[in-house]
Amino acid sequence: MTTNETITVTTDELLEKTALMAKEGYRVVQICALTPFKTDPENPAKKIPLPEFEIYYSFDKGYALTNLKLTVPRDQEIPSISRNFFAAFLYENEINEQFGTKITNIALDFKGTLYKKAKKVPFDVYSRQGGGQ
Amino acid sequence: MSDHHNQQPKRTIVPFGPQHPVLPEPIHLDLVLEDEKIIEAIPSIGYIHRGLELLAEKIEYPEFVSVAERICGICSFIHGLGYVQAVEDILKLDVPTRAKYLRTMWSEFSRMQSHLLWLGLAADAFGFENLFMASWKVRESILDIFEETTGGRVIFNVCQVGGLRKNVETDTLRRIKKDLDAIEIQIRNVCDIFVNDPSTKHRLVGVGILSKEMAHELGAVGPMLRASGIASDTRMLGYAAYSDVKFDIITETAGDCYARVLVRINEIYQSLSIIRQLIDKIPEEQVVYNKPKANPVGESFMRLEQPRGEVVYYAKGNGSKNLERFRARTPTFANIAPMLHVLKGQELADVPNIVLTIDPCISCTER
Amino acid sequence: MAFLPMLKTTLKNLFSKPATRLYPFEKREPYKHTHGHIENDLVNCTYCTLCEKKCPTKAIKVVRDPKTWTIEPLRCIACNICVEICPKKTLVMHQTYSACQTTGKKL
Q1: How would DSSP label each residue in C40-84?
Q2: CB-based contact, B321 to chain A, within 8 Å
Q3: Which domains does chain B have, with CATH numbers?
Q4: Measured between CA atoms, how close is B77 to chain A, in angstroms?
Q5: Interface predicted TM-score of the whole assembly (ipTM), two decimals
Q6: I need a labelling partner for A92 at 20 to 30 A (CA). Which of A122, B67, B94, B151 fits?
């Protein structure tokens, strides 16, 4: 099996890197978000959620998967890559709805109406476990 | 007289779904029409969002396979397999070869029954109900094979982290291989009608064309991509036992609904050939389980080929019995953007055909 | 190009016996490994509560004192995990599915 490669980026590099990848013929596979945890120093079995989001952008070219990993604090705005990869609009809408990230300028923005759900940001572990405001 | 020429043609908005006789699962589209031609389509999903990914925090990782399998009823086995492979990749666990062969065999049977189900629905969409019944009748013989080997017709509960829960004896496999000849004749009778009948061609040829460049740019996957001329199949990555069998990637160049039907029909025949190769080559050793020794720590991306396209699983473990995050990106999610593009400029009567041609599995899309 | 290709299938269906069974007069035989419903031998059961811990849907409820073992059949997903881990092998998976209720009493 081909191995996957992960590159860490910052929000400033994101747009230029994805523009370059679009020119080289990559295709966007998926965009995934998660809440990173850290171990509690007093109790090693317990994990505390950090007030950040880690977002993985996965691209594929010729069966090789390249991931871009982006770590942002909770309230920072992230530019959308849908101007380079139109197909990314659905994934970014989903992450905005489930986690409460602030991805702006999405090509087709549903503004919170994509999924019909009871809680506003159901996957947001940090606010659910009582951390922060 | 002059303002009669300057008038804009009237636009109407027709809602399609969530209840529609042709849709297996609910999806809503707002179609903006001018006369009978579609200008644009605005999707609205979320009718069966169950939030299954959140259950990973509550259910321990060996039992989570049951949840992963229930993401979808048609492609259930490959969801379970993808989850199990992602966790085994984190644990760096080796699976016995016989388990890999049996998993591949069940994946290929899953592909066959999913394509036969879709062929029936496609026939129903353009009004050929007799053919719909005939396709599903053939599908019953494959579901009987599943029940005999795994215990379930639709949800199998046979994958676990480290291998399989059940073994299948080699005598049963040889008998199944003999039965496949009769099943192939029935499949050929049904599929020849799709290929040769003038009424199917009349409804499907030239409808919903997706060009090669747009298919790549919009991120299409699966038969939707291969029918537009791009040869890309995730089975070439060689997971499970796919590196031990020989098969080609099936492509067509026309990019319309008829080409997608042909790709799926040829994939059924190809699956039969792969299953026969597997049964011939399966190793004699009867071990199918390798117990994991520790909890998973780390993360992994795993890509598989479902009947509808490429599916991506992401799993992250932190040493406890529950996984920290589990994510499945299903192929219909990626095919929605090409579907919206293909709908532009088509007629209203062709909308059910085009929506069905991406093989929509909306319960996978929303999990 | 074939002429009326569906005609062959239609005529064959017209003159052969139907594909359906006349249930309930003719019942379908399940296979040896079919997952139907769970039953427990309460005489030999040791009430070790392993089946309750491993059940993914928490359908089994075991109480050690007084000794009771109950299962909610509508919650059970017939996954066979409890049968495989039972140390005394008192749990058995029967091949017939849980039949419909005809009276109003609770199971």
Answers
A1: E-TTT-----HHHHH-TT--EEEETTTTEEEE-TTT-----HHHH
A2: no
A3: 50-355+361-365 (1.10.645.10)
A4: 21
A5: 0.85
A6: B67
